[in-house]
Structure formats: structure tokens, C-alpha cells
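call fold(seq) -> C-alpha cells
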Amino acid sequence: MSVLPDLHLHYVQACQNLSQPENPFIARVLQEADKNDEISTKGITLKLAGNNHLVPVPRVTDDDLGVLVSVLGQAAFVTGLDLAYNVLTDAGAKTMATFLQGNSTLRYLNLMFNDIGTSGAELIAGALHRNQSLLHLRMTGNKIGNQGGMFFASMLKTNSTLEKLDLGDCDVGLQCLIAIAIALTQNKSLKAINLNRPLLSNREEETTVHIARMLRSNSSLVELHLGKHEMKNFGVERLCEALYENSSLRYLDLSCNNITCDGVKFLGELLKRNQTLEILDLNANRIEDVGAIYLSEALVTTNRTLQALSIVSNNITGKGLVALSQAMQSNMKLSHIYIWGNKLDRNACVAFSELIETGRLQPGCTDVAPYVVDGEVLLAELSHGLGKHRFWAPRCAAVAPGAANASLEIVAVSEY
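ret:
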């Protein structure tokens, strides 16, 4: 570790030297960092996200970033940088790329929901061809497009350090997804990737076929997000066929697709034999009661691996929900289940109320809470779920990560 500099003092001096006005938000965060007694032993993540503030803050601009990285160049104890929800453009991406090329201590970089485009993606991906320190990169919500995604696919062929890459909501396309799938047949370091909401004009599920083919040979990927891929039962069948041969994947996100009970039948058969999958997200599909029963049968009979299941908004009635509640009575491994958005009739309300009241289902491990009106048990919604901290994170840890989000407890996705 380097000698601890006074970050705030150095920032003030850098602003003067570069004739750049101080950003009071950056100044305040650096002052807080200077007071951190553990900074030299544990390192620190500078939280400069432009959201999650009770008092509005001036968002970080390209010029602000130029001053900031000049300060961080000598601060080896800064191991994480959260710049989400700011107004950084391709010019800021160029500054960050230069910083990454010369930096050997940054482990976590969050650039989600800025204004970085294709050329900025090329610069950042280019820097990662040589960078050997960064473990986790979030580009979520930057409209880098298909070509920008291709630069990251190319980077994955050479980079052997990066463990987590988030390209969700980046407008990547078919060619990019296929290129990433091919790259991951060779890449042995990446453990988690988010490919949610690509722009696909082809409805033949070609990308799912390539991803399934990759899963047959990839032995390092632990977490895979394929939300909003317009995936149908055919695609689910291809993934399940591949996962019979995969022994590493623990978190599979298939939320917001077109999966029905026929597709869940393949997942049910997979769960009977798969010994590694711990989290399954089927949020916002249409599995209905038949699909819920397929899952419950797998959980009752042989599966003792799955720990978290999300079936939010799947048109399931009491019949399917009661079957899952009964499965939880015999399967002690399943600890987190999220059911809101289905048809919570009297039987479903009673069943889940009993699970919670007997302690089988902890209140922090589901998205419903029982209450009674005129002697009738009803369920209210809680703000828990697998995606709770995907787009935001509290500045202070008010609760244990597992109570708010199962994925953060099983596979850490917040920082490095």
C-alpha cells in the first residue's frame, strides 16, 4: 500500500491546477474517505453514484472525472469506484480507459446508466486487454449497441482477470451475444455475466442455442442472466440439455421471457438431476399452476440444491402455490421463495402464512407478509426479491444482504 494521501486536499489542489471548479459531491465523499480508519488495511470503494441521495447532488461530469483520476493515481487503497447514474460520455470513457491502463489496484468499477456509447465501449474494452486488476465491471444501461458489445466479446478472448461483467440493457444484438458465447467457450476466468434485454429481431432463438452450446464446455461461469430474451420453451429445452453436462452454474436468471408450463417441465426434470443450481429466477413468465406443480414435484422428490426460487407474476393460482408450500415442508434446503403478482387466493394465503408463522420461511426470505382482516388471512407485499439491489444499493447496509436479496448472499454481485 502507498502512503495515505489526503484525498480531499489533493482534490482541491488538482481542481486549482486544472482550473476546474470543485464538485461539492466529490469533495464530500473524499472527506468521508479521509476519515476512514480502515482504509489502509481493507481498501475502500468511493461511492459517487448520482442516485440514492435524499439531497440532490451535482452529478459527475467528464471534466470532474478527469480531476478525480488525477487524484486517484497515487491512491492505491482505492479499490472500488461507483460512478453509476452520472452524466459521463465517451470523453469520460476515454479518461477512464487511460486510468485503467495504468492502474493496478482498482478491482470494482460501476459505470451503469451513464451516457457512454459505442466509441466509449471500444476504449474501455481496449484498456481491459491489458489491465490485470479489475475483477468486476458494470456497464448496465449505457447504449453501447451491438458493435460496442462486440468489443467486449473480443476482450473476453484475451482478458484472464475479469470475473463479473454486466452488459444488461446495453442494446447489444444477435452478433454480440453469439460472439460472447463463443468467447466464453475459451475464457476461464469470468464467473458472472448479465446479458439482459438485448435487441433481437430474430425470433428463432439462435442466441439461446449458442449460449447453451457454451454452457456444455464452460466450467467457470457461476451466474448467468438471460432476462428479456424472448425465450420460449424451445430455448429452455436447449439450456436444460446443456446444463445436464454443466457442473458450475449456480444462478440462472430467465426472467421476463415467454416460458410456459411446457418449458418448466424441462426445468423440473433438470432439477431432479442437477446438483449445482442454487438460484432460479422465473419472474414474469407464464408457467401457471401446471408449471408450479412440475417445480414442486422436483423439489419434493430429489432436488436438495436449490436455495432460492422466484415465480413472481406467473399467473399461478392457489393450486400451484399450495403445491410449492407443501414442497417447502419436506425440502429444507429451499430457503428463499418469491410469489407476489400471482393469484393469491385463500388457500395460498393460508399456506404461506403457516410457513412464515411456523418459522419454516423467514420473513426476510420472501416477498409476502401475512395479516388478518375480519378473521381472514391475507398477504401483503414486501420489497424483497432477487433483483432488489440490481439497479441500486443503499449507501448504508441497513440489513444483512441475504435478508434483502438472496443472490447477494449466495453469489456476491454488489462489489468485488
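The longest helix spans residues 288-301.
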